[in-house]
Amino acid sequence: MTEPVTGIGLAVVIVGLALTTLVTRTSFLVAGSRLKLGHRVEMALRYAPVCTLAAIIVPDVLMHGGSWDVGLLEPRLIGVAAAGIWLCVSRNIVGCLATGMLAFSLARLYL
Question: Are 103 and 78 spatial neighbours (Cβ–Cβ below 8 Å)?
């Protein structure tokens, strides 16, 4: 196993992350009025939150205990499928969450 970062190494990591965050966040405020992004770049950036959410959720749904757990009777997949269908049909986020959790809970109880 690797040793935890402590002391001066930890301070360097914290300062480095703080500076990186400061530079990336303030660059849009400072150069925002002078720098215009192209139409294609702006359209592509609209999908960034969805891609981030997918990158967080997909591994949690498909992997369990460090190994792939993909099956038709897997409660997590059933919940995601039900939520996805609900969202495609109704475009209602609250209903999507409720449907996904209900399908997941019922599949977990009865499968």
Answer: yes
Could you give the count of Cα atoms lying within 13 Å of 47 in the half-sphere of its Cβ?
Answer: 7
pTM confidence score: 0.59
Alpha-carbon 2 to chain mean position: 27
- Each residue of 54-104: pLDDT tens digit? 899 888 888 877 788 788 888 999 999 999 999 999 989 999 999 999 999
| pLDDT tens, position by position, 93-104 | 999 999 999 999
Q: What residue spans define the domains of the chain?
A: 1-36
* Location of structure tokens 């359209």: 43
**Residue 24, both tokens:** 């990336």
Spatial neighbors of 87 by CB under 8 A, at least 6 apart, are 93, 96
